[in-house]
Amino acid sequence: MPRTTVSKVRNVFSTDLEDNELTSWMDVATELVDDVENADPSLTEKRLEKIERLLTAHFASSDDPRISNASRETGSVNYQGQTGMHLNSTTYGQRAKLLDPTGQLESDDFTLSV
Predict the structure, then answer these.
(1) What are the contacts of 4-7 at 24+ separation with CB within 8 A?
(2) Angstrom distance (rounded) from CA 39 to CA 46
(3) Phi, psi of 67 (to 5 degrees)
(4) Would residue 5 be called left, alpha or beta, if left means φ above 0 and alpha means ψ between -120 and 50 degrees?
(5) Contact 39/113 with Cβ under 8 angstroms?
(6) Structural contact between residues 25 and 59, judged by C-beta atoms closer than 8 angstroms
(7) Considering Cα of 87, then 90, then 93, then 97, what sign does the dihedral take?
């Protein structure tokens, strides 16, 4: 069951994505945060909710990429991150990792518990 809400995700992630699209990514984030909680059951719900909110924004940004640099002169746009960077590819993923004292999100080969 998600710890965060679409409204809270929208507070950190400005997007035109529909609520159901954000909810789909929230489900993925919830599974990862469940693993973080299992690694350290003493973590507060408040902290877990923040991690989940940031992970949802991270995953949703794959459908609505963040612009890192744009030039009117050349008409070019650069987007944040690279696929191979995993959670480091967005500032949302980087912040989620910082909030995770267990290190579960640090690994590039983490797996979801099912």
Answers:
(1) 4/29, 4/49, 4/52, 4/53, 4/56
(2) 16
(3) -80, 130
(4) beta
(5) no
(6) yes
(7) positive
**Residue 39 CB partners (closer than 8 Å, separation 6+):** 102, 103, 104
* Distance between CA atoms of residues 44 and 37, nearest Å: 9
Token reading at 10: 């929208």
d(CA 38, CA 113) in angstroms, rounded, equals 10
List the beta strands (DSSP E) in the chain. 67-71, 76-79
Rg (CA), the chain: 15
pTM above 0.85, yes or no: no
Can you give the length of the chain in residues?
Answer: 114
- Walking along the chain (114 residues) 10 residues at a time, the average pLDDT comes out as 97 94 97 96 98 96 69 66 72 94 81 45
